[in-house]
Amino acid sequence: MKAIALVCALVAGPAMAQGTDAFAVWSQNSGSLPPEFAWDYTVSFYADRRGEVEYCKAYADEAPGCATARFRLSKSAFAAMRAELEPLEAALAASAVDEAVDIPIGGGSSSGRIRMNGRDLRLPAFPSEADAERVDAVMQVLRTNTPGRAVRAAKTKAKQP
Predict the structure, then answer these.
(1) pTM, 2 dp
(2) Nearest of 41, 50, 47 to residue 71 by alpha carbon
(3) Residue 40 and residue 102: Cα distance in Å, rounded?
(4) Least enclosed by CB within 10 Å: which of 12, 80, 139, 148?
């Protein structure tokens, strides 16, 4: 049953943080591995410069297998990230992003969403070849602005179930 849930999560991508004002969310996972090696994390960015990382081990979906670490971007880093995302978001909004026809089985993946300018745009884990560059550009901005210390802190706090 967990394998079915994992496949659904990989195809659907991360949900926007529940009931929040997150404008960007991205996630990464280990793919289909035995529980002792499986992990995933989701990074959320908020309009007030806050961010959070939720890291889960062994397909857990709550504590103690999952833990959260929070961070805050400086005003200049946040402004730079938003400025970098604006034209990329516009390029994504100009035409729909298609998913690849042949999605790999197993292996890890990254996906996300951005919500800007009144639009909610999906960043699929496996975009079509024609759309991969546009999706990868946004994902790179989100990764670059995710503090590694926050990911490590959440990973350390999450306990193997």
Answers:
(1) 0.86
(2) 50
(3) 23
(4) 148
Per-residue model confidence (pLDDT) at position 161: 80
**Omega before 64 within 30 of 0, i.e. cis:** yes
Which residue has 């639009």 as its token pair? 119
Instruction: Return phi, psi of residue 126, to 5°.
Output: -130, 80
Sequence-distant (6+) residues with CB within 8 A of 2 are: 35, 59
Q: Provide the 3-class DSSP secondary structure of residue 90.
A: helix
If we measure between CA atoms, which residue out of 133, 135, 137, 115 comes closest to residue 124? 135
Place of tokens 């890890």: 108
Q: What's the pLDDT score for residue 4?
A: 34
Mean pLDDT split into 10-residue runs, the chain, 161 residues = 37 40 96 95 97 98 97 98 97 94 90 96 96 97 98 97 80
Q: What is the dihedral of CA 115, 117, 119, 121, to 10 degrees?
A: -50
**Burial class of residue 156, CB neighbours in 10 A (0-12, 13-18, 19+):** exposed
